[in-house]
Design brief:
The protein has five helices and two strands, in the order αββαααα. The chain has 140 residues and is mostly helical. The protein has a two-stranded antiparallel ribbon with strand order 1-2. A hairpin with a 2-residue loop joins β1 and β2. α1 runs antiparallel to α2, α1 packs antiparallel against α5 and α2 packs antiparallel against α3.
């Protein structure tokens, strides 16, 4: 991975953190709609810390997975994208089933989609195909 690739990936992850945080600011502190989730029968507000952690951790994990796939597969971008889309589908169960109300569901689902809309194309475009060198034939 070149320095340019690392910088692009870091900016992509930073954008994937900043975008849902901006949505949280607009919907929470600005408009007064505080997104919340129901966990264990209790309604918990979704604060800035959860938004940051909930986008930074998956962003860094996605970056790490892509780096690993670049070492072990010839088409890391394709494999990574399939896994990333599957992870998005699974992650949507959280806001769709655990949001405290309809408005929270919309905001939390929007945050998930924003993170995915930044990470999937942003990191996917940086994937470098593995150059697999064939071993020379062993002389008989």
């Amino acid at each position: 991975m070149s320095g340019g690739t690392g910088a692009r990936r870091a900016l992509t992850v930073a954008g994937a953190v900043a975008a849902p945080l901006a949505l949280w600011v607009v919907t929470g502190p600005v408009t007064g709609l505080d997104p919340s989730a129901e966990t264990g029968g209790e309604v918990q507000p979704v604060g800035a810390g959860l938004v940051i952690a909930g986008s930074l951790i998956p962003g860094l994990a996605a970056w790490g997975l892509l780096a690993l796939l670049e070492r072990v597969t010839g088409r890391p971008g394709r494999v990574w994208t399939v896994i990333a889309v599957a992870a998005l589908v699974l992650s949507m169960t959280g806001p769709l089933s655990g949001a405290a109300d309809g408005a929270s569901m919309a905001v939390l689902a929007g945050m998930h989609l924003i993170v995915a809309a930044i990470l999937i194309p942003g990191l996917g475009r940086t994937a470098r195909p593995t150059s697999r060198r064939e071993e020379p034939p062993v002389p008989a």
